[in-house]
Amino acid sequence: MSIEIKSGRIIDPANGVDEIQSLYIADGKIVGLGCAPEGYKAEKVIDATGCIVSPGFIDLCTYLREPGYEYKGTVASETYAAVKGGFTAVCCPPNTLPVNDTEAVTNLIFDLAKRARFAKVYPIGALTKGLKGKQLSELYSLKQAGCVAAGNGDYSVENLSVLKRCCEYAKTHEVSIFVRPEEVSLAADGCVHEGAVGTRLGLNGIPALAETVAVSQLILLAEETGAHLHLSHLTSAKSVQMVAEAKRSGLNVTADVAIQHLILTEEAVSGFDSRFHCRPPLRTHADRAALIKGLNDGVIDAVCSQHQPHEAAAKQAPFAESEPGISSVEVVLPLLLGLVRESELSLATLVKVLSVGAAALLKVEGGSLAVGDTADICVFDTNEAWRVTSETVISKGKNTPWDEHEMQGLVKHTLVDGRIAYA
Amino acid sequence: MTELIDVEGLLETMCQGLTDHLAARKIENPCVVGIRTGGVWLAEIIHKKLEITDDCGELDISFYRDDFTRIGLNPKVKPSVLPFETEGRHLILVDDVLMSGRTIRAAMNELFDYGRPASITLVALIDLEGRELPIQADVVGQKVALSGSQQIKLKGPDQLVLEITDK
Amino acid sequence: MKQVTEPNHLQLNKQGQLKHFLTLDGLDKALLTEILDTADSFIEVGARSIKKVPLLRGRTVVNLFFEASTRTRSTFELAAKRLSADVLNLNISTSATSKGESLSDTLQNLEAMASDMFVVRHSQSGAPHFIAESVTPNVSIINAGDGRHAHPTQAMLDMLTIRQHKGCFEGLSVAIVGDILHSRVARSQIRALKILGVSEVRVIAPNTLLPVDIESLGAKVFGCMKEGLDNVDVVIMLRLQRERMEGALLPSEDEFYKLYGLTTEKLKYAKPDAIVMHPGPINRGVEIESAVADGPQSVILNQVTNGIAVRMAVMSMAMSGHVAGRDA
């Protein structure tokens, strides 16, 4: 099918493009920018006047919950939510049931995604068998099956010797490792940032030190083994500083930040509202500022949603006993546009950290609107207002702290492989 | 519109009436208890005029009101003070204005939680119509009939003034 | 984006009256003074031959204890009974059931019993908040201690004790000594003292027993008793749990007692008329010397009578605020 996206403002940071133009698509590819190729006839025209046309967003962390946790979400329901949020591809962590530590599970996820026909799915395979941190997974086979990286989900590999071997083995087969840096013994039974709010509420804290100690270890491991280590969901200013230093020394280290850490701080937890319970925890104003600066400086490569849909009961408990996580994939764009409106981020950086940043570190297609590229595209209106409600949120998880909040910025069309996946 | 009543004169009438009442009943050595706040001012005057030996008692009926479910607890509740044993004693209960009788019911319930008195004599400065309970004062300063739009209030404590105002 | 949830949005009705009593956070001096004044009236009730008033007659109060505490439960029970309420004691072991779901289920069952008030003790910080948000609007929640968060009735009875001995709060210097980190009582005390306007709140403990950023609550930190107790009017000792020796928080009871145990000698650093308090139960020889606990400056026993009166005050005020809030 050939589609013309007419007169939109095309923002394509990978190719240094920011201009109002028309984009021509045929057979799943971009075939023309500004002028149509000879003999081109659009079967469908999308009028993008007043809208932004950008590469489709790529999420480094979307919990699809399937297999195993279908009561929280399914591949179909969550990839649908993803395209509504402007994402054309999502990485799903390996903590499913069973854990994605075999080709069979990887294949099952691909099958489900293919059937759903919404966003592309890039599974992250388990780094260790059963995520138990003891035995290596079959990283080579998982890579062959289509996993884009290996990670340990929300669990840390506590034994450093095991982690070092994981890095060495991954390096041999050029598999990227996704790690959420957290030193378990320091995080203990914490559920909020160890700081003023946690102290006042009497909630056990997770000190920033739990993250920074792990970041420093991981950077040293990257240096030692040469493996590509991707640090997921940084939260502390000090971590950003260490990653910047590592990148300056040319280490193969990348990093992302989850949307909530760019928007919220520990103060959000003041009323024991379990919807704000997330892991890693929300930290301070200074940390938040450093994370935004890290995005602007290119230290942090990408923004991810860390979308974690939950059933209602998961949050209906005293704060520490509620399950962490926010259903966020549909609000990443409007929340980031809020930062653009507050001049904390440029529109070009927004597009970059949502698309080409992730594509580059994953070494996958996407993140670019050059002629010949796959037509993974997002068309969005930066101003259109909408309200977050359990009806407007289509994810199975309604666990959003922005419930009943007004959002500004709405995805109008999401094209995956030149096909309209959401409109 | 404000109307004033001569309190001094009423107090004379009231104390005389009380002395007569006590004599007729052959009550000796009574104790006097005022209901906060107006009743306490009056009780102190009676206490002085009748030369009662025990200190004057003060009753705060906030915990005994029957309208808790409607209006809640009085935020300015103060402790009741009964500086004598009530068990077996003759009590003179004093209030400024007697109307529905509900305050007196609450006050009597409270008094009984201190012990079983020999008797309770009720004294009121003003007796309005509108009783909702079978309670009558033994001694009254004056009966007053108010129109529906009027209300009466005793002001003090330095100089006692009875004010009738429009609601 | 506004992200801060008002900590007291739950516990006050539209007229600013108490309807739940979850925390002292966000309450003002006038309200705390009203609690103390009302408690004073209830102390008088406790001295009568019949120690009961009909305020909560026909109401059902459920003592919902997810964490065992005979002492606290008994004072709440006695307080409710002296207000003429019907009392149901439920001790629910959290270890026997599996976390959050059971709490929601328990609440649903209790609501069917048409209760008017839940007195909640729970090992999780914020559990009473959660319950206040989950239950029907006609049930009033009183926090009887949640995790490390708050124990507001205990703090208020301590305030009543301080007021009885010192007359007012202005100009007072108060030191809280011991395991602040794990203490909900300390958190509520610091809050109450700040609201009531003492001139200084000090906390005395090694850094391992101090929560991060305790200064943000308005407390001044001291590492040793000599400086910390210097010229204070009130010394509050906290109970030290034996399990604190595990996890490297403290080396031994002996060293703790040597440094922070309140002895006759160390008490001399405080003002000569300083009072000594302890929320109990006391570990003699661990945080306090027997001679001090039983000495002339100790007001520890006094605190028990006040406990019932404060709980009567809070229960009747919260019920009252519920009633008024419903009409509004």
Overall mean pLDDT of chain B: 91
> Mind telling me the CATH superfamily name of the largest domain in chain C?
Aspartate/ornithine carbamoyltransferase
Instruction: Tell me the number of helical segments of chain C per DSSP (H or I, 4 or more residues long).
Output: 11
Major sheet summary line of chain B: 5 strands, parallel
Strand content of chain B: 25-35%
Helical amount of chain B? 25-40%
Task: State the separation between the terminal residues of chain C, measured CA to CA.
Answer: 31 Å
Number of helices of chain B: 4
Sheet with most strands: strand arrangement of chain C: 7-6-5-8-9
How much strand of chain C? 5-15%
What does the overall shape of chain C look like? globular
Pick out its properties.
heterotrimer, A: 423 residues, alpha/beta, Urease, subunit C, domain 1, TIM Barrel, 2 domains, 8-stranded parallel sheet, 13 helices, B: 167 residues, Rossmann fold, 3-stranded antiparallel sheet, 28% helix
Please provide a written account of the structure.
The complex is a heterotrimer of chains A (423), B (167) and C (328). Chain A is of the alpha/beta class and 423 residues long. Chain A has two domains: 3-52 and 373-422, Roll (Urease, subunit C, domain 1); 56-362, Metal-dependent hydrolases (TIM Barrel, Alpha-Beta Barrel), CATH 3.20.20. Helices cover 30% and strands 23% of the residues of chain A. In chain A, helix 1 (75-84) crosses helix 2 (103-116). Chain B is α/β, with parallel strands linked by helices. Chain B has a single domain (3-166), classed as Rossmann fold. Helix content of chain B is 28%, strand content 29%. Chain B has four helices and eight strands, in the order βαβαβαβαββββ. Chain B is globular and about 45 Å long. Chain B starts with a strand and ends with a strand. Helices cover 38% and strands 14% of the residues of chain C. Chain C is built from eleven helices and nine strands. In chain C, helix 4 links the parallel strand 3 (117-122) and strand 4 (140-146). Residues 1-6 of chain C have low confidence and may be disordered. The chains are: A alpha/beta (423), B alpha/beta (167), C alpha/beta (328). At the A-C interface, helix 6 of A face helix 3 and helix 4 of C.
Ordered list of secondary-structure elements with their pairings:
The complex is a heterotrimer of chains A (423), B (167) and C (328).
Chain A: E1 3-12, E2 17-26, E3 29-33, E4 44-47, E5 52-55, E6 57-59, H1 75-84, E7 87-92, H2 103-116, E8 120-126, H3 139-145, E9 149-151, H4 160-172, E10 177-179, H5 184-187, E11 192-193, H6 196-201, E12 205-206, H7 208-225, E13 229-231, H8 237-248, E14 253-258, H9 259-263, H10 285-297, E15 302-304, H11 332-341, H12 347-354, H13 356-362, E16 377-387, E17 406-416, E18 419-422
Parallel strand pairs in A: 1-4, 1-5, 6-7, 7-8, 8-9, 9-10, 10-13, 11-12, 13-14, 14-15
Antiparallel strand pairs in A: 1-2, 2-3, 5-16, 16-17, 17-18
Helix pairs in contact in A: 1-2, 7-8, 8-10
Chain B: E1 3-5, H1 7-25, E2 31-35, H2 38-49, E3 57-59, H3 68-71, E4 90-98, H4 102-112, E5 119-128, E6 139-144, E7 150-155, E8 161-166
Parallel strand pairs in B: 2-3, 2-4, 4-5, 5-6
Antiparallel strand pairs in B: 1-8, 7-8
Chain C: H1 29-46, E1 60-65, H2 70-82, E2 86-91, H3 99-111, E3 117-122, H4 127-134, E4 140-146, H5 152-166, E5 173-177, H6 184-196, E6 200-204, E7 220-222, H7 225-228, E8 234-237, H8 253-260, H9 264-267, E9 275-277, H10 290-293, H11 302-327
Helix pairs in contact in C: 1-5, 1-11, 2-11, 5-6, 5-11
